[in-house]
Every structure is written in structure tokens, then in C-alpha cells.
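Ops channel
N.P.: pipeline sanity check, posting one input/output pair.
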């Protein structure tokens, strides 16, 4: 193999090739920073041509998105299933939604690498993944949908809402709290209260005030 064909250790299949390119992109981000990492840098790191990268990723944003999603997977030591496994009533579902959202917010904020995708180097999540926003939302909504569908069948999520839209709304809420500075600096307790007051009633059937109290208890 030549230098432009993976050096002396070519990947066995497309999945392995994609993983190798994600590894290379991550190494470049660590070395140069997110905003300064180029496809030329990634190609050099992976020992391939830039054209080879385009065989597996449509553009830089899609490749960076994969780095983001993989880092998210690495950082989470509690799965969504753990939050919802006992959520068999609307009140418990309300608490599970808020607990999972607070956990997600805290995990991302504690990860130095994920902070690169938020507001370091002057780039927000939405700017970083602008070219791959559809793929990002699709990936997260796909993960959320089975849980939302099960909850809807159990009557703990509203039956009058579209589940894909509900998943998108959850993601939009989380990204907004992570990236958009509001008029007030809010503590973790303040964010929890806002999630209980406004996100929960959009998803869970029942009295909004009672659900909010259950989610904050």
C-alpha cells in the first residue's frame, strides 16, 4: 500500500475505514483545535488522500459530527434506559425526563472535549454541525424514539404528539440551554425547574402543575 492508501495498515471494510477517519479527525482536533482542523489535516493523519475521505463522508461537517456523536457515547455512563425503566406513571415519566435532561446537560458541560463543540473557539454546536444538522437530529431522535414510543403506548407520554417531533423538541431544548445565553444566569436548580415547568407538559399528559412538582421533587 502507498502512503495515500492508509499506510501499511489498510482497513478491512467501510466501517473500519470510517472509524479510522474519525480517529484521525479526533487526533487533529486535539492537536490543532476544532476551528483549525481541515480535511487536509485529517487526510495526512489517516495517510489517505482527501478524495478518500469523500468516499465515506460528504463533507467536513459530517466527519466532525461523527467525532461529536462518538464522544457523546463515551461520556455517558448511564443509559437512557436506566432513567425510564421505572417510569410507569405520568409523574414518574415527568421525573425521568427531567433527570435525563439534567444528566445530559451536566455530562456535556463536564467534558472538555465536548466543550469544543459548544462555545469554545467562538463556535457553537449549531454552527459546528450546520452542514450536518439533519444527520445530527436524525441520529439523536432515532435513539429517543423507541423510548418515547413505549411510553406513549403505556400512556405516560401524550398520544396526540408526533414522536419524531417530540424527540426533535427535546434535542432543541437541550442545545438551547447549552449554547444560548439568556438574560439571566441560571443555576442547575433553575434549569431543572424550567425543564419541569415547560418541557414536561409538552410531553406528558396530566395537570402541568402537578407534573412539575413531581419532576422537581
Amino acid at each position: 500500500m502507498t502512503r495515500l492508501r492508509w499506510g501499511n495498515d489498510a482497513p478491512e471494510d467501510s466501517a473500519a475505514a470510517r472509524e479510522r477517519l474519525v480517529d484521525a479527525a479526533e487526533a487533529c482536533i486535539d492537536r490543532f483545535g476544532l476551528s483549525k482542523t481541515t480535511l487536509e489535516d485529517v487526510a495526512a493523519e489517516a495517510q489517505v488522500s482527501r478524495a478518500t475521505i469523500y468516499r465515506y463522508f460528504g463533507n467536513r461537517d459530517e466527519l466532525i459530527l461523527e467525532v461529536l456523536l462518538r464522544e457523546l457515547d463515551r461520556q455517558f455512563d448511564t443509559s437512557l434506559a436506566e432513567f425510564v425503566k421505572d417510569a410507569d406513571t405520568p409523574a414518574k415519566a415527568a421525573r425521568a425526563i427531567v433527570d435525563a435532561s439534567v444528566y445530559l446537560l451536566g455530562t456535556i458541560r463536564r467534558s472538555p472535549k465536548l466543550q469544543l463543540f459548544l462555545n469554545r473557539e467562538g463556535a457553537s454546536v449549531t454552527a459546528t454541525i450546520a452542514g450536518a444538522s439533519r444527520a445530527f437530529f436524525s441520529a439523536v431522535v432515532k435513539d429517543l424514539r423507541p423510548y418515547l414510543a413505549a411510553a406513549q403506548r403505556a400512556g405516560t407520554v401524550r398520544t396526540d404528539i408526533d414522536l419524531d417531533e417530540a424527540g426533535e423538541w427535546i434535542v432543541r431544548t437541550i442545545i438551547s440551554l447549552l449554547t444560548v445565553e439568556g438574560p439571566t444566569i441560571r443555576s442547575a436548580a433553575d434549569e431543572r425547574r424550567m425543564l419541569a415547568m415547560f418541557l414536561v407538559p409538552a410531553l406528558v399528559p396530566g395537570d402541568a402543575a402537578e407534573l412539575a412538582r413531581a419532576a422537581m421533587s
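N.P.: looks fine end to end. The chain is about 70% helix and 0% strand.
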